[in-house]
Specification:
The protein has about 80 residues and is mainly alpha-helical. The protein has a single domain, classed as Non-ribosomal Peptide Synthetase Peptidyl Carrier Protein, Chain A (Orthogonal Bundle), CATH 1.10.1200.10. It has three helices and no strands. Helix 1 runs antiparallel to helix 2 and helix 1 packs across helix 3. The longest helix has 17 residues.
């Protein structure tokens, strides 16, 4: 799980250089997310972690924080491995 967080933090740091995010902080509430960044984030998660984020997964809650993104990735990789 920590390896996943490190990769997500590194990606986010490229966009939010002046702010070190805590794992629980809501990037939407902080005003860091626009529609273009949201799509970049989804594409990064899919490519980096070999998952497919389906339309049913496109709930803002899944992407609000590093912790929520880790949960989504773990859920998607568990589902993929059990199929």
């Amino acid at each position: 799980m920590e390896e996943i967080k490190v990769k997500i933090r590194a990606f986010l740091f490229r966009f939010f250089r002046k702010r070190a995010l805590e794992d629980h902080e809501d990037i939407f509430e902080l005003g860091f997310v626009n529609s273009l960044f949201a799509m970049q984030l989804v594409m990064f998660l899919e490519k980096e972690f070999g998952i497919v984020i389906e339309s049913k997964d496109m709930d803002q809650d899944n992407f609000r924080s590093i912790n929520r993104m880790v949960s989504l990735i773990q859920e998607k990789t568990t589902v993929d491995q059990s199929s």
